[in-house]
UniProtKB/TrEMBL annotation, chains A, B:
SMART domains: HTH_GNTR (SM00345), UTRA (SM00866). One of its GO terms (molecular function) is DNA binding. Keywords: DNA-binding, Transcription, Transcription regulation. Pfam families: GntR, UTRA. It comes from Streptomyces longispororuber. This is GntR family transcriptional regulator. Transmembrane segments: none annotated. PROSITE patterns: HTH_GNTR. Residues 9-77 form the HTH gntR-type domain. GO terms for biological process: negative regulation of DNA-templated transcription. The keyword DNA damage does not apply.
Length: 252, 252
DNA sequence: CATCGCAACATCTCTAGAGATGTTGTGCGG
DNA sequence: CCGCACAACATCTCTAGAGATGTTGCGATG
C-alpha cells in the first residue's frame, strides 16, 4: 500500500520504537550490532527505504551509529566530568598542575594538536578584548583527545601585543599554562564568565571531532578578566556532547 | 543513474549545501519559506526521495523546520540568557522577587502548568536527598512558556516529610518561592551544584516542548545544599537548546 | 459581510529495484 | 605462518511513481 491507515503511527516509527525498546531494556548492549536494513526488511516485510527510515530515526536520536559496510551499532555514553569552577581555582594553575588533571578519572585526555598564530580577531572577540582596528590577536587552536577520540576543540584569543615574546605565543606555555604566564605579566585572571549553549555541529566541527550524525555539540565561551575588570582572554570551545558533563558549584 | 561518480559528494549533499549557503548569506531569512520538494525536483532534476534527503539534512542540522502541508521554513534563534549564579543569589529570592525575572529582556516567561504530587523518588534522587526506603518525596513538575512556546520542563524533588503542610506542597509557593520557604523551615540553601549536559530529546520531551526534529535539549541537574551540607532539593530541568544560553560567573 | 466547503498544493509515507562503495573474514599462495 | 586477493555482505545513494494527510486561500452560499 502507501500511506496506509494511520491507526497510530507510521511503519518506520513502529520499527524504530521496537528497536529503541530493545536498547533500553538491554537486549542490545552498547557496542553491540543490531538488525540492519536487510534484517528489518525480512522481519517486517517492508522496502529498503522504510527500514532505512527507522534506523535513521534512531541515529538522529543519538542512540545508534551506522558504520558503512559493517552494520548498525548501539552507542555508548561515558562522559567526562568537567568542573567549571574548581578547575580554574588558583590552587590548580598556580601550582603548575594542568587544569585538566581534575577532570578525568584515570582516563587520558591529551592535546592532539596545537597551532599558534597571530591574526585578526573576529569582531565580537575584538570588542570584548578591547582591541582596536590595528591590533592583532594571538590565537591558540588546540584539539583534545580522550582514548584516541577527539572530544574538544578550543580556540583561545589574547592580545598579541600583550603576549608577544612570551611562552603564551609558543605551543608549549610551560608549567601552569597560559594563566600562570598571564600572572607573571601582571594580568592575573581573577574572574571568569562561561556561556554554554548547544546545537547540532556544522560540517567542519563534525569532521574535526569525528562525530557521528545525530549528536549535538556543546559550546562554551569563556572570558577571563583581570583585577581591573579587563578581559584578558576569550576562549571558544566546542565539545562533543556525548563526552561531557559540565559541573558548576557556587554559593547563594 | 544511481550512486553515480563520487567526484566529491552526493547529489543530496550538493543541494543541501546550496540551500545552506543561501541561508547563511541571508538570501533566505528567518521565517521565510525556502524551495520545497517539488521545487528542488524541478530545479535539479532529481527524484522526490533525493530532494527529501537534502531537506532532511538541513532539518537535522536545526537550520530549517518543515511544516506539513505548508512548506519548509528557516529557523530563528533568539536565546534566553539564564544566569546560573546570580539568579540564585539570596538578594533575588530573599526579597520576594522571582528568580526568573532577571533572565529575560522584556519577554514573558511564565509557568504554564504546575503539578505537585507526593510520590517515591527515583533511586538516584532518593540517594542524594538521603531518603530511606519508607520516605516519600514532594515532586513539583512545572512547564515554562516563553511567547507561547514551551521552553523548559522542570521537576523538583524535596523530602515530603520536610515540606508537608507548607506552601511548598502547594502549587503557589508564595513570595520568594521554594527557597524562601525552605529558609523559614531553617533549611536555607547556601550552596548549589549544577550539572549540564546535552542530547537529542526523547519522544516525551519532544512532545512536551513541541520541539521540531533536529534540535537538541540541554539538561540541568541542580542540587541545593543547606549550611550543614545536606541536600534539600534536587531539580531536573530539560531546556530547549535553541531557546537558551546558560551563563556562569565565578572567581578564581 | 461573514463563514463554510473545497480544490490546489504542500509534505509525509511507502514500494521495488539496482548500482556504488566500504568492511570483514576466508582461503590461497609464498 | 604470514600476508594479500577476493568474495560475501553491509550500508549508501538514487530512481519513478502513488496514495495519505495536513494547510491555505478562494469562491460560493447564507
Amino acid at each position: 500500500m502507501s500511506g496506509r491507515s494511520r491507526e497510530r503511527q507510521a511503519k518506520y516509527q513502529r520499527i524504530a520504537a521496537e528497536l529503541r525498546a530493545g536498547i533500553e531494556t538491554g537486549e542490545y548492549e552498547p557496542g553491540q550490532r543490531l538488525p540492519g536494513e536487510n534484517d528489518l526488511m525480512a522481519a517486517h516485510g517492508v522496502a529498503r527505504m522504510t527500514a532505512r527510515q527507522a534506523l535513521a530515526l534512531l541515529q538522529a536520536e543519538g542512540l545508534v551509529e551506522a558504520r558503512k559496510g559493517a552494520g548498525v551499532f548501539v552507542r555508548d555514553f561515558k562522559p567526562i566530568r568537567r568542573l567549571g569552577v574548581e578547575r580554574l581555582a588558583r590552587a590548580q594553575w598556580g601550582s603548575g598542575r594542568s587544569i585538566w588533571a581534575a577532570d578525568i578519572g584515570g582516563r587520558d585526555l591529551v592535546v592532539d594538536s596545537v597551532a599558534v598564530t597571530e591574526e585578526e580577531a573576529p569582531a565580537a572577540v575584538a570588542e570584548i578584548l578591547g582591541l582596536g582596528e590595528e591590533d592583532r590577536a594571538c590565537v591558540r587552536r588546540r584539539r583534545f583527545v580522550l582514548d584516541g577520540e577527539p572530544v574538544l576543540l578550543s580556540v583561545s584569543y589574547l592580545s598579541a601585543e600583550l603576549v608577544r615574546g612570551t611562552p603564551i605565543a609558543q605551543p608549549d606555555t610551560g608549567p601552569g599554562g597560559t594563566y600562570a604566564r598571564l600572572e607573571e605579566l601582571g594580568r592575573r585572571p581573577v574572574r571568569f564568565r562561561e556561556e554554554v549553549r548547544s546545537r547540532m555541529p556544522n560540517a567542519e566541527e563534525s569532521a574535526h571531532l569525528r562525530m557521528s550524525s545525530g549528536m549535538p555539540v556543546m559550546l562554551i565561551g569563556r572570558t577571563a578578566f583581570d583585577d581591573q575588570g579587563r578581559a584578558v582572554e576569550v576562549n571558544e570551545m566546542v565539545l562533543d556532547a556525548s563526552a561531557y558533563v559540565l559541573e558548576y558549584n557556587f554559593e547563594a
